[in-house]
């Protein structure tokens, strides 16, 4: 009875964590689409820097109030994570600029097999046949409803490759660091956000000028655009935290697979709020196929042997202490 209650509690927390990530991720995409599309704030890297600066401010306040206890993360590990994370941000922005939207979407889909490869190579994870097939169904479904024109060149391919590998490594590393140092999501975020904020605030204006040929300090700031910038930064705090929570509770692969649910929601909301142009039968069929694949993945990976580690042991730093905002990291042998 106690085991069933514990399992129900874990399932409820998993659902709540995922819904938190979905709501904040879809919300920030909608806000940023309005900010960049309607008001012309095309400084994506600088905006991301402001997101991490806001997150740093929040973690500092909660630490000062005593809700987050001090924790340890070695400097080499921190710098390695920040390198992957910043390469991911810059790589995705450059990939979107240098490639067609269709190839950009294909590159994003490639993150799932790359994440699987990292887990197989580094964590000795074994996937069942049904789990593999369900991932393929998700990829096909999302590709049908998102991939349109596909054109690529050498520099675009290079940017996409860097973006895919750095993003996959960054997401794998979130799970790795949480397990190795027994860090809760909030603790890990309090270590990484300040370094990312500083590096991106320095790099962002130059990167954005290179990408858009516009200077962020010359933008015509007004009440409405500032409101959307503040709103975007506020939602980003939840997005950053929920990403760490989800990857900590699940794995990078599961986060990528279920993450395409956000792609479907963004498409649906885009059709609702920004017009129904582009909505046709094959898009709807692709959405349905992707959702069915996600359901299949959840069922297949949760079965015994669906997704499990083989003879893998990670040393845990048991000296960590958790504050009120830290949550225990759940084993991901069964997703």
Automatic annotation (TrEMBL):
Q: What is its main location?
A: membrane
List membrane-spanning regions: 12-31, 43-66, 78-96, 133-150, 156-174, 186-206, 226-245, 257-275, 281-300
Q: Which PANTHER family match?
A: SOLUTE CARRIER FAMILY 35
The keyword Transmembrane helix is assigned to this record: yes
Any idea where the Sugar phosphate transporter domain is?
A: 23-297
Q: Which UniProt keywords apply?
A: Membrane, Transmembrane, Transmembrane helix
UniProt cross-references to Pfam families, sorted A to Z: TPT
Record protein name field = UDP-rhamnose/UDP-galactose transporter 4-like
